[in-house]
User: What shape does this take?
Amino acid sequence: MRTLDSIAERQTIEKRISALAASDQRLWGKMSAHQMVCHLCDSYRLALGEKSARPATGFLQRTLVKWVALRLPMKWPKGVATRPEVEQGVGGTPPVDFERDRAELIVAFKRFCAESGNISVAHPYFGSMTTWEWRRWGFLHADHHLRQFGR
Assistant: This one.
């Protein structure tokens, strides 16, 4: 399974982020490429404990949904709602300057990769997660949104 445990996967995701352009058009969803950059950055900051989100979890999300989302070899479905604290146009960090925001995402991504073994916060949907689960989520979440923009 592809995770951010792999240096090669980390490099691939970073290259895909670096290849993003503000003019990239979404293939689904509501966010612009710039908004997506800010959303991913917020999500990594949430995992690092630098941003908070109210939990929206129950037994099913913490068990079955988490297992399916992180372990089955499938692409994540489109249109799944996110927490308001990281949703663009609601509580997410608003876009300012694409190049600067993309650079901040790369910094947050690298910090997440380096520190994900020490994450003590709970995921808003999946609850407590192991290092492997955080690194799998970190890969899948970035991959999902990069594919949203054909990257």
